[in-house]
Structure formats: C-alpha cells, structure tokens
Amino acid sequence: MEVLKLGDRFGRVATDLRVSLTDKCNLRCTYCMPAEGLDWMPDDKMLTDDELVRLIRVGVERLGIEEIRFTGGEPLVRRGIVGLIGRVRDIDPHVDLSMTTNALGLARSAQALADAGLNRVNVSLDTVRADTFKTITRRDRVDDVIAGLAAAEAAGMGPVKVNAVLMRGVNDDQAAELLRWCLDRGYELRFIEQMPLDAQHGWQRDGMITADEIFAQLATVFELTPAEEPRGSAPAELFRVDGGPGTVGVIASVTRPFCGDCDRVRLTADGQVRNCLFARDESDLRLALRSGATDEEIARRWVTAVVGKLPGHGIDDPGFLQPDRPMSAIGG
Ligand code: SAM
Ligand code: SF4
Predict the structure, then answer these.
(1) Is 246 in the pocket of ligand 1 (CB under 6 A)?
(2) Is residue 71 in contact with ligand 1, taking CB distance under 6 Å?
(3) Which of 108, 167, 176, 184 yields a CA-CA distance of 20 to 30 A from 324?
(4) Distances 22 to 26, 122, 271 between C-alpha atoms, Å
C-alpha cells in the first residue's frame, strides 16, 4: 500500500490528527459557548463509529498519522466512547492516543478508557475555586473535574496535563494559585491564550490576557527558567518552576504564533477535514465516504486538503475573519 504524506507548500507535514467526537458539551465556558448552547449538528451528519474508525485507519495506514487526540465539544459525552477508543487502538498498537476533556464523568470512566488504550488526557481547568469555576463554565462542577484528574492519574494516564484559559477580571489573578495546586499534585499546567473562536464572536485582542502578562504574574511568586528540552512542534513554551522538576507551559497562540512548526490536521465530528483551527475552507470526507469512495480516493482527497494550508492563522491581519465554526464544533 502506498503511504502518502500530509505535506503542505511550506514544508510542514501533518502527523498529529485532532478528531472531534461531538460538538455537544455539558459545560458552557464563556470563552467557548453561549449560555443556551448552540444548534447541535444533526445526527445524520455525524460520523458513525464505523465511519470514524475507517477514516482514522486511512489516516494511520496511508497518511502517516502518528498521534491522535480526541476532542470536541466534550468527547466523553459521546455514547460508546470506550468501545470507540478500543477500536482505534486496534488499528495500531503504537499510535499515541490522547484526549482533551473537561473531565466531567472521568472519575467513573478513566480506568476503562486506559484499559481500552487511551494513553493520556489533557484536562481543562481554569480555576480551583468553586465560585470562579461556576462563573466561567456556568455549572457548579469543579469537584467532578478534580475527581476526574485524580482518576486519570490513578489509571496510569499520566503525566496528566491541565489546560487553563485566563480571563481578565475573572480568573487572571489566580494563575499562581492554580500553578501551585497543579505542582502539588504533579499535574503539568499549560496556560492557553484566549483565541477568537468563541461562538458569540466576543473575543477582543485588547481584552485577552497575553503570555507576557501570565509570565509577569507567575514571576512574582515563582522562579521560571526555560526548560532544556527542544520545543519541536509542541505549542507550549515550557519553563522549569523553582529549579524543577515541576514545569509550566504557556501556549501563546495569539502573541507568539507557532504556525511555522504546526504538524496538525483536524477531522470534525461531521467528517470535514480542516487543515487549521482558523481555516475558512473544509474538505468533505463524509460525502466521499457515503458516496462509495475507496480508501485510496479518501486518502488523496485528504492530501489535497492539507496542501492548501496557509502559512499562518492571520489573527493580526487587518482582513482576519473568524471561522464560521466555533471551537466546540471544530475540536480544540
Ligand atoms: N471540552 C473539552 C475541554 O474543554 O477540554 C475539549 C474541547 S475544548 C474546545 C478544548 C480546549 O480548548 C480546552 O482546553 C478549552 O479551554 C480551549 N478553548 C475553548 N475555547 C477557547 C478559546 N476561545 N481560546 C482558547 N482556548 C479555548
Ligand atoms: Fe465545553 Fe470544552 Fe467548550 Fe468548555 S471549552 S464549553 S468544556 S467544549
């Protein structure tokens, strides 16, 4: 079988596939979704488990995909998730399988997910204070997230990573507190700059907390030294905290974009390939699948979709347009 590369015109090769399993979610984070939720994708447009497994198999066997991260919406709300992970694991015992999750319900499912072949989780947690958590996510569930984190660690899905978004006037005074909490438990914290991907289109450049502000705040409490490991395509700038071994990362997607090293490609829950979070074009693999395309035809269509990847996200360009799909329907 011929193995093709998912390369683009700027020399980048995609080997990391982000698969969105659903656009639905059981939280309503203000930087992501409106309080009332969104019009969810119709069921008949969602890829079935069989369709998802087939596309992922094409990615792994014909297109050089080495890592798969499941995301959403909230991937854990997809029915049959444990079985699906097991089927993807059966494609290849070596491919790295991880999940980005809000961890609601993870306390119950972590061991089963690990047994099915999930290697690691990234858990989103922006604060450890119950009142602030409720303000950000519009749900009173911080204890469930904390239990989910512990269960992931206990199930061997470490090192557990925590993703946090800081919002001005909401939790931007809690960066050091969250880092201390994560260090005490051996979780690897990464702050992510807020990006213009909210469904409400409320993002404003001067409202976001920048990486420099995050460093300045952390530096009042901790000594940060750049970690020695090469960064490669990893988006986080990594720092040792107080000499280590604990680390903290900052993902400066907006103020210090890392598009030149990007190795990602995305598949949405309704079967569209996106070559960038911020892409305005998609390639419809669901239609191809359902029209009887062969694996080879699907692989070629996927290659074409990646060739057209733009050099950068263009957030700073005067003509920047936010993609029509919000983060929750793309897969963050
Ligand atoms: N529901 C899961 C979760 O929250 O981890 C997975 C999907 S969520 C869209 C993936 C990640 O994107 C989360 O870490 C979340 O904090 C982040 N995110 C959502 N909206 C964002 C935005 N506008 N800017 C930056 N990160 C965002
Ligand atoms: Fe749900 Fe994740 Fe979006 Fe929060 S960030 S609303 S948990 S999809």
Answers:
(1) no
(2) yes
(3) 167
(4) 11, 17, 11
